[in-house]
């Protein structure tokens, strides 16, 4: 079984990608995401993380992360942003009194790297006396972590600035990555429980009038999809989540995220949803898989789990083909409450019309 995502054909994928981030509403959505903002603010307001360090913000968008770093003691911040949002940043940094501590680079990481370390050191001579780059921060995560493929630019920046540091001093500083670790988590899901919760929330009683018939029409968009991105109710998630893969941003190479394949065993016995649904039934049909991610830095954690406060990433759900769902071909019983799956995940880079692909095989 396979899921694949496309950009619009006939258009340059990089152009589409950066144009998306020129939409103010996109930034408004991210800035209103409380778990996201608390995670990064906690880190960048921590003096043990930023004080007296040169910080690089990769894909800096509105400039909020660069601002926090500058306001909380960074020696200097490089704000790298390839879209036209870099043009807003000058005013943002002036408004917050940090313009003298932030250098805006309106270009891509790839172009910066292509110019070389000598070019960068020559243009920004103040780096050497300050000891080099010590911290790279980026909010690179997309849906199910790797959508958009920005991680590859962050890793390229990491390698470039490590090389730059080595040219500046015989004792280069260790570059910390924010976030430093990331994981993709997966759990089986049950469509009926999602549907019940969805209809109740959106198509319940309106001053005594029920519109569940209209709700059925509305919900068909999910039934007929190969995947969807929504916040799932806990009642629809058949498991606490099994880690599919983990990344250490200090050591991983880009190739390790191009194609990931793992066989995983999902034990549903401890799932509250599974226990509830099997009170009066011998088992539960699995209709698909719900995927989310967690990221970490030191003791700071951001989770997009359906069991945590909702984020703008929501959760990504891949559905099994309709005929398999209709026939309940993937069915987990109380006697054997586990499910095995072999999952393959690929990110094709640079961005192409086939950006991401998930394939999986399910067995019991």
Automatic annotation (TrEMBL):
Pfam families assigned: PrmA, PRMT_C
Entry's Gene Ontology molecular function annotations: histone methyltransferase activity; protein-arginine N-methyltransferase activity
Protein arginine N-methyltransferase domain: residues covered: 181-328
InterPro entries, sorted: Arg_MeTrfase, PRMT_dom, SAM-dependent_MTases_sf
Annotated Gene3D superfamilies: Hnrnp arginine n-methyltransferase1, Vaccinia Virus protein VP39
One of the protein's GO biological processes: methylation
PROSITE patterns the UniProt entry points to: SAM_MT_PRMT
Protein keywords: Methyltransferase, S-adenosyl-L-methionine, Transferase
Keyword Methyltransferase: yes
Keyword Methyltransferase included in the entry's annotation: yes
Cited PANTHER family: PROTEIN ARGININE N-METHYLTRANSFERASE, PROTEIN ARGININE N-METHYLTRANSFERASE 1
Record-given protein name: Arginine N-methyltransferase, type I
Organism: Strigomonas culicis
Lineage of the organism: Eukaryota, Discoba, Euglenozoa, Kinetoplastea, Metakinetoplastina
């Amino acid at each position: 079984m396979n899921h694949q995502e496309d950009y619009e054909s006939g258009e340059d994928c990089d152009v589409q990608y950066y144009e998306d981030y020129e939409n103010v509403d996109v930034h408004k959505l991210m800035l209103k995401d409380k778990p996201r903002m608390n995670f990064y603010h906690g880190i960048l307001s921590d003096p043990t993380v930023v004080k007296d360090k040169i910080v690089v913000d990769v894909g800096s968008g509105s400039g909020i992360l660069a601002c926090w770093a500058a306001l909380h003691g960074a020696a200097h911040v490089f704000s790298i942003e390839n879209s036209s949002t870099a043009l807003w940043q000058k005013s943002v940094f002036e408004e917050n009194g940090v313009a003298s501590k932030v250098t805006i680079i309106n270009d891509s990481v790839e172009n910066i790297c292509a110019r070389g370390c000598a070019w960068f050191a020559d243009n920004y001579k103040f780096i050497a006396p300050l000891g080099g780059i010590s911290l790279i921060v980026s909010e690179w995560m997309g849906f199910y972590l790797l959508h958009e493929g920005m991680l590859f630019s962050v890793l390229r920046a990491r390698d470039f600035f490590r090389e730059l540091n080595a040219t500046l001093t015989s004792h280069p500083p260790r570059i910390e990555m924010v976030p430093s670790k990331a994981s993709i988590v997966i759990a089986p899901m049950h469509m009926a429980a999602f549907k019940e919760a969805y209809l109740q929330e959106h198509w319940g009683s309106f001053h005594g009038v029920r519109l569940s018939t209209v709700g059925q029409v509305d919900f068909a968009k999910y039934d007929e999809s190969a995947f969807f991105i929504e916040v799932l109710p806990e009642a629809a998630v058949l498991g606490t989540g099994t880690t599919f893969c983990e990344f250490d941003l200090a050591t991983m190479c880009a190739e390790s995220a191009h194609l990931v394949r793992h066989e995983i065993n999902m034990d549903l016995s401890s799932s509250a949803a599974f226990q509830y649904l099997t009170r009066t039934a011998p088992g539960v049909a699995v209709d698909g898989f719900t995927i989310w991610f967690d990221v970490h830095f030191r003791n700071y954690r951001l989770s997009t789990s359906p069991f945590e406060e909702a984020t703008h990433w929501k959760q990504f759900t891949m559905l099994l083909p309709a005929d398999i769902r209709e026939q309940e071909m993937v069915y987990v019983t109380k006697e054997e409450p586990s499910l095995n799956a072999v999952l393959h995940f690929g990110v094709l880079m640079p961005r192409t019309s086939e950006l991401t692909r998930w394939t999986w095989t399910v067995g019991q």
